[in-house]
Design a protein that fits this description.
The complex is a heterodimer of chains A (154) and B (276).
Chain A (H helix, E strand, L loop, with lengths): L1 E6 L2 E6 L6 H8 L18 E4 L2 E4 L12 E3 L1 H4 L8 H8 L9 H14 L5 H7 L11 H14 L1
Helix pairs in contact in A: 3-6
Chain B lengths: L4 E3 L4 H8 L4 E4 L5 H6 L7 E4 L9 E4 L2 E5 L4 H5 L2 H6 L1 H8 L4 H6 L2 H6 L8 H6 L3 E6 L2 E6 L4 E3 L2 E2 L6 E7 L7 E7 L10 E7 L5 E6 L6 E2 L1 H7 L6 H14 L10 H19 L1
Parallel strand pairs in B: 1-3, 2-3
Antiparallel strand pairs in B: 4-5, 5-10, 6-7, 6-10, 8-9, 11-12, 12-13, 13-14
Helix pairs in contact in B: 9-10, 10-11
Classes of the chains: A alpha+beta (154), B alpha+beta (276).
Chain lengths: 154, 276
């Protein structure tokens, strides 16, 4: 099947088999490997992208279901190729990324959270990223990074 | 995932016809279906995506109550002011379902049709006296939600039947509701035990237990003890013990049967104390 969608502001037409996830479609057909495949069954959140502004696990959605949708991945979050998004800056500055595998998913979830709630409490941040598993950091520095980015964006 | 044929029917009649085929699977949210297809726990020769079916809707509230359409996502329910105001136990259960990412895709009707004994959204809806509307080739039928489940993963749905909506009636004035989920961690967890209570002071109290029987069950003897009575400490203790006796838990990876029975008592008591 052919689908037409917008990825990171760019209109794309992709040929996808109906039994491929949006995650595989993004990584293999669209060539955007910033979105990571962790568990592939919706437990880890590494594949989080925004579909029509809403954070979803791209592994739990078929590529064909994205027909007509507006998809934002970590590659599209940067305002320009030479500038990082404040969330990306904050994750670097606060040590929010160690191995980095969960980071794109967490940053996309955090972007969705801040769009809805520009100054979340620590509890609201932890509730918001409950579906993003990080093996390295123990989350404290991730929460600090999101709080710092929230201040930056406010 | 293994190869499957894929359909996006535009009408309910088409959806019903497609869903009647052998090994046809209905796709709404997909958060359970895709996992089960990937892990080969379920087979799909054809997947019927019902998101474009005219007449299948989301969340709506009117004089009849809360209509949770086949396409209403868990997240829609979670952020609905009317649910917060009138269906508090449902709100509490939805906040405990998966993650925000999952809740943006998962539908309430899907959570119900999956018929997991531990599904969080089922006990509050049974406690609220919800009914389920089903459409098949022969027409439409409505069934009390508590009669919908036959066992783990099994419901009364025949091949080709599609759930249109769940209807939860408007609560009587002063109705108090609560859902308590007991798990091993705060998030991304399946219930070890879940207890929902809908209490009308001076009237009926419904107690529904999750994850302690092959289906969610009502603790009818406990309910009977409380009918039209004031919830005194003594009566609550008796009802909690009755609920323990009515539960039929198994031991599995999350807890032993003995522990679950103990927790039915604790959580039923706690829930009743909080609604009185």
């Amino acid at each position: 099947m052919n689908i037409r969608l917008t990825i990171n502001g760019e209109k794309r037409e992709l040929a996808v088999e109906p039994y491929r996830s949006l995650l595989d479609t993004l990584r293999n057909e669209a060539g955007l490997t910033g979105t990571k495949k962790g568990c592939d069954v919706g437990d880890c959140g590494a594949c989080t992208v925004l579909v029509d502004g809403k954070p979803v696990n791209s592994c739990l959605m078929l590529g064909v279901e994205a027909d007509g949708a507006d998809v934002l991945t970590i590659e599209g979050l940067q305002p320009s190729p030479d500038r990082l998004h404040p969330l990306q800056e904050a994750f670097i500055r606060h040590g929010g990324a160690q191995c980095g595998f969960c980071t794109p998913g967490i940053i996309m979830m955090a972007a969705a959270l801040l769009a809805e709630n520009p100054s979340p409490t620590e509890e609201e941040i932890r509730f918001g990223i409950a579906g993003n598993i990080c093996r390295c950091t123990g989350y404290t520095k991730i929460v600090e990074a999101i709080q710092a980015a929230a201040k930056e964006l406010a | 995932m293994r190869r499957f044929a894929y359909h996006e029917p535009a009408t309910l009649d088409e959806a019903v016809a497609l869903a009647a085929a052998p090994n046809a699977q209905i796709l709404a949210g997909g958060t359970d279906l895709l996992v089960e297809l990937k892990e080969q726990l379920r087979r799909a020769d054809c997947v019927v995506n019902i998101k474009k079916v005219a007449g299948l809707g989301g969340l709506r509230y009117d004089a009849g109550g809360l209509h949770i359409g086949a396409l209403a996502t868990a997240r829609e329910v979670e952020i609905s002011p009317i649910v917060l105001d009138k269906y508090r136990s449902l709100m509490q259960s939805v906040r405990e379902l998966g993650s925000i990412q999952v809740r943006h895709r998962a539908t309430i009707v899907g959570n119900i049709c999956r018929a997991s004994p531990s599904a969080d959204t089922i006990p509050p809806l049974i406690a609220d006296g919800a009914t389920i509307r089903i459409r098949g080739a022969a027409g439409e039928r409505g069934v009390p939600l508590e009669d919908f489940f036959l066992g783990p993963g099994k419901t009364i749905l025949a091949p080709g039947e599609v759930v249109i909506e769940i209807l939860a009636p408007s609560p009587l004035p002063d109705t108090r509701k609560i859902y308590i989920k007991h798990g091993r961690r705060k998030a991304m967890e399946l219930a070890t035990v879940g207890v929902a209570v809908t209490h009308v002071p001076g009237g009926e109290t419904r107690i529904v237990l999750g994850a302690v029987a092959p289906t969610p069950i009502r603790a009818r003897r406990a309910e009977e003890l409380l009918r039209a009575n004031r919830l005194t400490d003594e009566l609550i203790a008796k009802a909690a013990q009755a609920a323990v006796a009515e539960s039929r838990p198994i031991s599995n990876v999350r807890a032993s049967a003995e522990y679950r029975r103990e927790m039915v008592g604790v959580l039923t008591r706690r829930a009743l104390e909080q609604v009185r």
